[in-house]
Amino acid sequence: MNIDQLAYIVEVARVKSLSAASLNLHVTQSAISQAITGLEKELGIKLFVRSRAETVPTPEGRAILKKAQEVTRLIREIREEAENRAGTLRGRLRLGTLPAEMIALVQVVASLKQDHPHVHIEMSEKGSVDVMDDVRSGELDLGLVAMPEDQPLLLKDLKFERLYKGKLMIAAGRRSPLAARKSVTPQELREQLLVLYKDDYVEWFIRDFTAQFGPPSVLFKTNNAGAIQSALLEGIAVTVGHDFSFLQHSHHVNADYALLELDRFIQQPVHFGWVWPAKQLLSPVAKYVMERFKHETRAYM
After folding, report:
1. pTM score, whole prediction
2. Where among 87, 103, 134 does a domain terminate?
3. What is the spatial distance between Cα 113 and Cα 249, in angstroms, rounded to a whole number?
4. Which residue range forms the structural domain that includes residue 59?
5. Tens digit of pLDDT for each residue in 139-189?
6. Of 89, 115, 136, 279, which residue is 20 to 30 A from 208 by alpha carbon distance?
């Protein structure tokens, strides 16, 4: 048994494909196949079931994979610690974020890559609950999420570092009749069409709003920021978002759209912050990204 064999089975289990794993690891597919076969013979159990569609762990393989993930994680931490003490940053960071924060994170990652060209970043855009699930399962190393104050169980097996506590607000384009307002009532909001991000904190808002005042009129839901912005600029609809997200794009506020308070609506505070596995140390790369993001957004906190 060797480190390469453990790294191979962890990657194959992650992508469910020998060919995809070979591309990601920059080794031949036959080398991965031979390594897995050799490890299976050594351990006396079958680790994977292979088919044309996918390669998935056997029940016995899943138990071995859990240990292999721990070993490869520790090896990665040892290497990163050594490189950090040498004054360089290397390694891979798998980063997940809710859609509204992708633009700000791209700027941070670009800065990181410029200063440390040997760092490799993988970014994915998902809802907060999906990001937390992926961090918990080991699919992601670090996540930027929105956490409702009334759902602490979402953080099971995770550590959470809060960046900002805020609330949801209404954004209306300058063509909207609401643009000159400072606030809107729930009844008035129900008369408007809404375009919404497909994110959990928006779903939580819709849940609470519907329970108090009835369902709003939703034109569409999307992760496409351009589609939402177009609907706002044309005066077709309004949207709901976290004040933290809107403030990061303050150059558009006043010029393109207005932010309105939602009167007479009881909402749970939402916390923006980072999550990572509770049993895992933060890598130097993860710490850099967290500190750099805090620096870039400090004016809005």
Report:
1. 0.66
2. 87
3. 23
4. 1-87
5. 999 999 988 777 777 888 999 999 888 888 899 999 999 999 999 999 999
6. 136
